Amino acid sequence: MLGFLKDRHRKRLKARPFSNEWLKIIKRNVAFFVRLAAADQAELLDHIQVFLAEKSFEGCAGQEITDEVRVTIAAQACLLLLHRKTDYFPRLLTILVYPTTYLADEQRPITAEIWEEGKHARLGETQRQMGSMVLAWDAVESGAADPSDGKNVVLHEFAHQLDFENLAADGTPALATRQQQLVWREVMRTEFASLRAADQTGIPTLLDTYGATNAAEFFAVAVEAFFERPLRLRSQHPRLYAQLQQYFRQDPVDFSAERIRASS
Ligand SMILES: [Zn+2]
After folding, report:
1. Rounded CA gap, 207 and 195, in Å?
2. Above 80 in pLDDT, residue 110?
3. Which residues pair with 58 in a beta bridge?
4. Residue 68 has pLDDT above 90, yes or no
5. Quick check: 7 pLDDT over 80?
6. How far, in Å, from the CA of 21 to the mean position of ligand 1?
């Protein structure tokens, strides 16, 4: 019954007319949006209405929470929800936004629950148990503005949230069947091992070597590459690409801004 009420409420939220101001913000800030197919744009806007109604935002260290902040974050996060049955990152309640890399000159204890992004200079973090996420606004903005540099802190942190949906931070999101889980684990294990080996020997990699930290970071980094560098990911890591394509039910090659120079 609760699920039924929730679905009905979400349906109503989606039926509301989408704010013109919000649409302007998305077109201005979120570069991938105009490259999406019209049906996907419409689906994304529906998801944004639900997302913004359900998640709360809190500004930290003087960061103001404006519609621009909320909508720019929501538009990127909701890209991960297209074409799939979704419960809108159910474990996440609050998004804390700092103006800039928020731990840079601050030492604070990191508890066992906090999912800290070490090498990423603390652009973001998310927690499995506490229902919150921290993002640095400058990193959110730059990630949204460049859709093909392989870096997107919002996609990265929300990928962790997808990973948490089945209650384990193990780099495996909720998959429909046991068979899918087995194939997923085998592909991820192999790809993770090869990234670790490349990281240790200093071989250049398409995937950010931060993904060599552990299986959960590997998944988050792979999601960034999947959406930002799909052409190269598909050609260099076809099995990884296929797993992500199957899970997300999307082929980002279709809307990618990625340009591959003939020499690379
Ligand atoms: Zn991470």
Report:
1. 8
2. no
3. 96
4. yes
5. yes
6. 31
